[in-house]
Specification:
By secondary structure, the chain is mostly helical. It has one domain. It is built from 14 helices and no strands. Helix 1 runs antiparallel to helix 11.
């Protein structure tokens, strides 16, 4: 299987992961008159399909015990189950994140949700796989928390400038963030315990867990949506081919980012690759501001706080990256 053999290559893969994680939601923003609960079925299919494609290509480049199929035969069943459970947890968190995007916009939902996820995920992953300088990791997490607070302050200032604010949307993002941080430890366990599952196998079982949990979580949200009226499942079959393709494309983009992040984690450790990957709110906020004009009409206070959020996220990611070299 393909894995990076230097920190520089691993870092490039994590940066690609960051861009993918921060960009996939544009596919949802680009869909017109297609509820996120329906969009999400296509997305869930997309993340599983792309993980299989990458497993049978990048994960099977070289034969041997580490190749995808050989690794599946040797890995502990418990590690496969752990990856699937991580996928189930992620799926619920991501459904809430997409709901938050619909309610609050990308520039707000991503920093709040993923910023909290960074804190929870890095701490728990490090406890399971202590790799990297703990002091620098802690500093990076603290800087990320400051970035989340600044984003909240920017949103408050945006509200003062006349835009409608929903407290419910912020709480949805907070719950999403806590859950989003809880899937990383399950993945860490599958990659580092006993007869470990490789990164490509972990991605396949992880995305499969997300897919098979959709009939539970997504069906519930269709009947009891967080915003708007209940959703009729027939709308999925009435949607245009373009809407379905955008949903699958969103899954492909996120899936590529996830596989790259897990592959890079083989070199850096999950805590570090996950933490750097969680710079995705910065990418998403840029899309929200520049492409979707979510802060149009904002006052100077809101714009200043948003700019500071970017600065602190950059400092957080630089500090976490340095934790690898200082270990």
């Amino acid at each position: 299987m393909f894995t990076p053999h230097s920190f520089s290559l691993a870092l490039v893969m994590v940066i690609v992961s960051t861009v993918c994680w921060g960009s996939w939601a544009n596919t949802f923003k680009g869909v017109k008159n297609y509820r996120f609960e329906l969009f999400y079925w296509d997305y869930a299919i997309g993340i599983f399909v792309i993980s299989l494609i990458l497993a049978f290509t990048m994960g099977s480049i070289h034969s041997g015990p580490s190749s995808f199929l050989a690794n599946l035969r040797s890995a502990d069943t418990g590690n496969m189950i752990s990856a699937m459970v991580g996928g189930v947890v992620f799926n619920l968190a991501n459904l809430l994140l997409v709901a938050g995007i619909e309610m609050a916009g990308m520039a707000v939902a991503f920093p709040v949700s993923i910023g909290l996820a960074l804190v929870v995920g890095v701490v728990l992953s490090y406890l399971l796989q202590p790799k990297g300088n703990p002091a620098l990791l802690a500093l990076g997490v603290a800087l990320a928390i400051v970035a989340v607070v600044l984003d909240g302050k920017a949103y408050a200032a945006l509200s003062a400038s006349g835009k409608s604010i929903s407290r419910k949307s912020i709480w949805v993002c907070v719950v999403s963030g806590i859950l989003m941080g809880l899937w990383a430890p399950f993945v860490t366990h599958s990659l580092a315990s006993g007869h470990a599952l490789g990164p490509y196998g972990t991605a396949v079982f992880f995305t499969f867990g997300a897919l098979v949990s959709c009939p539970v979580f997504n069906t519930y949200l269709m009947k009891r949506p967080l915003s708007g009226e209940p959703v009729d499942g027939s709308g999925f079959f009435k949607a245009s081919a373009g809407a379905h393709l955008l949903g699958i494309a969103g899954g492909f983009v996120w899936g590529v980012g996830t596989v790259f992040n897990l592959v890079a984690a083989n070199f850096t450790g999950v805590a570090i690759s996950y933490a750097i990957g969680q710079a995705s709110p910065m990418v998403a906020a840029l899309w929200g501001v520049l492409a979707w004009h979510e802060f149009r009409g904002a006052n100077s206070k809101a714009k200043t706080r948003l700019a500071l959020m970017f600065v602190f996220y950059l400092l957080a990611i630089a500090t976490v990256a340095a934790a690898n070299r200082a270990a």
